[in-house]
Amino acid sequence: MRELQDYLGVLRAEAQAQGRPIPERMLGELADHWEELQGRYRAEGFGAEAASQKAIRELGEPRILALALKTDFPEPLAFWRRFFRPAPLAATFLLLLGWTVNSFAFSLVSIQGRSVEPRLSPGNHAVVEKWRGPLHPEDLVVFRAGDRLMLGIVDGWSPDGRLEVHRNGSGPILVDPRQLLGRVVLRIP
User: Fold this and answer.
1) Residue 106: in which H helix or E strand, if any?
2) Using CA atoms, how far apart are residues 54 and 83, in angstroms rounded to an integer?
3) Domain extent at residue 10
4) Would you write out the chain's pLDDT as a tens digit for each of its 189 residues?
5) Alpha-carbon gap, residue 39 to 48, rounded angstroms
6) Are residues 61 and 124 in the same domain?
7) What is the spatial distance between Cα 11 and Cα 66, in angstroms, rounded to a whole number?
């Protein structure tokens, strides 16, 4: 066993000199392999010391083994560490992009009422474009009425500059342009 400890010490020093220490799990695997080799040689009739020395010789020269371990056996999950290292930065970027798009460009609205059926039904979702482009008759719009969001269908503009919309079963509703959230550009069933 002393021979194995000396061998592993030299191996550690060689690997350290080459710029990459050998992980302890790998040294443990080498020790297990040495024990298997020593057991095999003992079963063949070699004495304890002779079997130990023969097993050490079969493991190989420490300097050469340190080079082989440096190049052939990367650390576990080394690829994944390199791959996911930029992940927190990418996730932060995507969250900020999503927040920006949701805050300034588009919004997702869940439809709960039947005010604009059959164009949108309860349970549908709608993507609302927040940019203030020109509105045309029959466009679906989302506007604020107090603390609620409402859907309506554009009829046109009133002479005083307010938007005229209607909902199923209601007459024209006048909506101040400042209450307008945006136009529905996509329906998601």
Assistant:
1) strand 106-110
2) 42
3) 2-83
4) 678 888 888 888 888 887 777 778 888 888 888 889 888 889 999 888 888 888 888 888 877 777 776 654 455 555 556 655 666 666 776 777 766 665 666 676 667 777 777 777 787 777 777 766 788 888 878 888 888 877 888 888 888 888 888 888 777 888 888 888 788 777 777
5) 9
6) no
7) 6
124-154 in b/e burial notation, b at 16+ Cβ within 10 A? bebebbbeeeebeeebbbbbeeeeebbbbbb
Question: Quick one: 109 and 183 in the same domain?
Answer: yes
Beta pairing partners, 140? 153
Q: Is residue 96 part of a domain?
A: no
157: CATH: 2.10.109.10
Q: Are 83 and 106 in contact (CB under 8 A)?
A: no
Alpha-helical regions (H) of the chain: 2-17, 24-43, 48-59, 62-72, 78-84, 87-100
